[in-house]
Design a protein that fits this description.
The chain has about 120 residues and is mostly beta strands. Helix content is about 0%, strand content about 45%.
Length: about 120
């Protein structure tokens, strides 16, 4: 029902900022809750943040709280991840995810039905 494509990844120095985008296909984007996950080499995919479909309530992993901000623009079928004060530990492939019928509290991989291919974020120093 929905296809997701991430973009905006790249190389940035520690303390810098980066903004990721996730473009969704279809005209029912506003009915999906959205999330961001990340996976570093040799590690499991972990929850980063999520946003509900209508109310816009957000959730953040403790590791990124206060530094990352998730937002969505339903008119553009896009969800964003603004990353500030980046640390080398943030280096990972970042994945966008979507679910139309939320389950749980949207903080686990199993809560989502659709996934993008990911975009690489590398933080130096």
């Amino acid at each position: 029902q929905v296809q997701l494509v991430e973009s905006g990844g790249g190389l940035v120095q520690a303390g810098g900022s980066l903004r990721l985008s996730c473009a969704a296909s279809g005209r029912t984007f506003s009915t999906y809750a959205m999330g961001w996950f990340r996976q570093a080499p040799g590690k499991e995919r972990e929850f980063v943040t999520s946003i509900t479909r209508s109310s816009g309530i957000t959730y953040y992993a403790d590791s990124v709280k206060g530094r990352f901000t998730i937002s969505r623009d339903n008119a553009k079928n896009t969800v964003y991840l603004q990353m500030n004060s980046l640390k080398p530990e943030d280096t990972a492939v970042y994945y966008c995810a979507a679910v139309q019928t939320p389950r749980g509290i949207l903080n686990t991989r199993g809560s989502y039905d659709y996934w993008g291919q990911g975009t690489q974020v590398t933080v130096s120093s």
